[in-house]
Q: What sequence folds into this?
């Protein structure tokens, strides 16, 4: 049955639960967790349990389950950040839309699509060129929409994606959160969604902690291994402020003075993430640091015995050779790596003005080095007697590698923690039990209520937010049909397979219909309504769904499509 009507002052927020763009989630942080809950309710994620890949899953430890889940995600989903996937909009249009809710200058300082460039790293990166926006006028921005698991799976219908799904970072993080609960039995209490201006990931409080990073997982050991993958995984927390932390108990946001997350849960998250991002310096960590900082490798050389004779090799050659074998400079396999290298890579005499890396194996055995203490930093600096760089610069960079302090959302001003109702779903519930539990919470918990909108079940919600999002925010189908005459538009819709990417009484948005090139008749009628409204925005219209059909009445003409959704709705525009 339908829920009570959405209040007029929350219609914009609730309609955003259907498009879930990055900028909408920034303005309305209450949207982030409902997508996790929508994926928890989705039958698609529950079907994963029938895959042979997850056979004997209950016998595995939670950590091994998580690793197998990661491989499943890697095999079935690609990372997608294509500008054209969900179309384009403009900064002025979105600024005007969000003006009643947040100051334009606040958005510009905090969101990458509205001018944010973070620190020097992102200024040098040139964000617009990096994302391919430089080919458009300066105020054009992508309408990056976060995908439900159904929309992610529907990428397989798009050319070039084969039989693989896809999604952007928020889509993958919310999918991971749901799958960790459903398949791995991880409590929602141990999953924290972490958003920065350009990225979204999860921190999972298991063992030393795990970060999801798009399709991959990052353990603490991986965080400090200095590889290219880890370097990319580190960028968001190294260079950006955390803008949103979302949890089953609520959220905290960098620009809003009140936070609904449980303060104890938030402090646990801060403590655990801080510990994850810090490690004592040791010889292996120093060598990992050099792997990441290739410009510092020229300060070092490695000694090795070749045929019983002492030989020396520039550190950068040894690190480069790691790419061709499974051994590493930084661990116990170093001698095996060097043994595989050609003898003519080595020099018969020590290289001038280079520090022997081998000496640090013994140095760190002599005592613990605390990089927070000046005395210990000086001890280490005396060993780094480099002619190519100031030792203090290297020590400073090493400390930053070993000791990252995130820029927390409440770093600039304290937050008032006003805890709201929590989402309490103990591990082990069935899909039906989850839906029933969330249904029971709707009256008192706005996040649970909004989850049914993100879930797209029009039989359980006020349909006006769905309709508003469809009519106002469907740039893909508008752009694709802008040169078509109306009969051609209707013909294209009718020729599409009559199948929805959503089951039951759940409905796709017009751009999902167009991208997947398929849809139920009700969804096709809504897509046609969006296209006609863009061509004649002042014309009022109605859309009626009555069991077996859906009919759009626009400017004196009726357009009917057969429907299997069995919806009974009377929608009108203006809302």
A:
């Amino acid at each position: 049955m339908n829920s009570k009507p959405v209040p007029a002052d929350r219609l914009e927020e609730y309609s955003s639960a259907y498009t879930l763009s990055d900028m909408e989630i920034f303005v309305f942080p209450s949207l982030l967790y409902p997508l996790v809950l929508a994926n928890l309710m989705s039958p698609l994620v529950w079907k994963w349990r029938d895959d042979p890949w997850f056979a004997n899953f209950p016998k595995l430890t939670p950590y091994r389950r998580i690793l197998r889940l990661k491989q499943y995600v890697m095999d079935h989903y690609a990372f997608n950040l294509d500008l054209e996937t969900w179309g384009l909009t403009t900064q002025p249009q979105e600024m005007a839309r969000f003006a009643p809710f947040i100051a334009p200058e606040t958005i510009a300082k905090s969101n990458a699509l509205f001018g944010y460039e973070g620190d020097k790293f992102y200024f040098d990166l040139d964000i617009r060129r990096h994302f391919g926006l430089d080919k458009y006028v300066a105020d054009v921005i992508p309408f990056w929409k976060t995908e439900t698991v159904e929309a992610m799976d529907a990428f397989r219908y798009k050319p070039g994606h084969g039989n693989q799904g896809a999604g952007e970072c928020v889509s993958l993080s919310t999918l991971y959160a749901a799958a960790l609960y459903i398949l791995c039995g991880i409590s929602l209490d141990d999953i924290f969604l972490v958003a920065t201006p350009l990225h979204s990931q999860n921190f999972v409080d298991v063992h030393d902690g795990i970060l999801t990073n798009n399709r991959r997982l990052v353990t603490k050991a991986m965080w400090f291994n200095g590889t290219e993958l880890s370097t990319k995984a580190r960028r968001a927390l190294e260079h950006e402020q955390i803008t949103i932390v979302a949890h089953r108990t609520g959220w905290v946001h960098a620009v809003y003075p009140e936070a609904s997350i449980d303060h104890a849960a938030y402090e646990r998250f801060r403590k655990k993430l801080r510990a994850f991002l810090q490690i004592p310096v040791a010889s292996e960590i120093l060598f990992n640091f050099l792997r990441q900082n290739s410009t510092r490798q020229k300060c070092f050389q490695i000694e090795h015995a070749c045929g019983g004779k002492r030989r020396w090799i520039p550190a950068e050659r040894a690190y480069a050779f790691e790419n061709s074998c499974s051994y590493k400079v930084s661990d116990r396999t170093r001698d095996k790596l060097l043994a595989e290298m050609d003898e003519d890579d080595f020099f018969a005499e020590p290289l001038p003005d280079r520090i022997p890396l081998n000496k640090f194996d013994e140095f760190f055995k002599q005592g613990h080095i605390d990089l927070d203490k000046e005395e210990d930093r000086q001890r280490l600096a005396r060993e780094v007697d480099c002619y190519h760089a100031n030792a203090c610069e290297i020590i400073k960079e090493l400390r930053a590698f070993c000791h990252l302090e995130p820029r927390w959302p409440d770093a600039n001003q304290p937050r008032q923690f006003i805890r709201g109702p929590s989402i309490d779903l103990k591990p082990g519930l069935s899909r039906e039990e989850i839906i029933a539990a969330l249904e029971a919470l709707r009256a008192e918990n706005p996040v649970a209520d909004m989850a049914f909108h993100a879930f797209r079940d029009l039989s359980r919600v006020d349909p006006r937010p769905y309709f508003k999002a469809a009519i106002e925010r469907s740039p893909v189908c508008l752009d694709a049909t802008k040169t078509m005459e109306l009969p051609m538009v209707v013909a294209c819709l009718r020729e599409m397979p009559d199948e929805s990417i959503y089951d039951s009484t759940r409905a796709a948005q017009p751009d999902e219909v167009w991208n997947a090139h398929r849809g139920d008749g009700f969804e096709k009628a809504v897509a046609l309504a969006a296209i006609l409204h863009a061509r004649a925005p002042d014309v009022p219209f109605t859309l009626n769904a009555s069991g077996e059909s859906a009919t759009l009445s626009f400017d004196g003409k009726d357009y009917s499509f057969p429907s299997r959704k069995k919806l009974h709705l009377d929608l009108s525009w203006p809302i």
